[in-house]
# Entry
Amino acid sequence: MSKIIVSACLLGCECRYKGDCCKNEAVLALAEEHTLIAVCPEQMGGLPTPRDPAERVGDRVITVNGKDVTEEYTKGAEAALLLAKLNRADAAIMKANSPSCGKGVIYDGTFTGAKRQGNGVTAELFADNGIPVFTEDELHMFSV
# Structure
């Protein structure tokens, strides 16, 4: 049985920036064969729910109101990585497009809904530490 770190919002936790979730039944179904370990890096970094929307602007994470929350995102990413390492996680399934969890494509920092190539802070840290990262849109590619 593999251990998989999963964005908590995909499991039904109402922890997204606007206080809702994006429960994904296909991700939940993985619990039949794998151990799922929920993380919300934004909350783990000390940010409240709900909270102002944030996007990556270069190496920084900035809210729609101009507040720099890079430190909180970094702290949350490091806490999620520690949890992954302590549990010897085999992979991660993270929320697509997120400034924390997105992989491959994220919002571009203009708060217009436009996207660009890039990774969220946590997804990037996981990948840099050898943890395979998938989004809920990539479950067809997922295997551990």
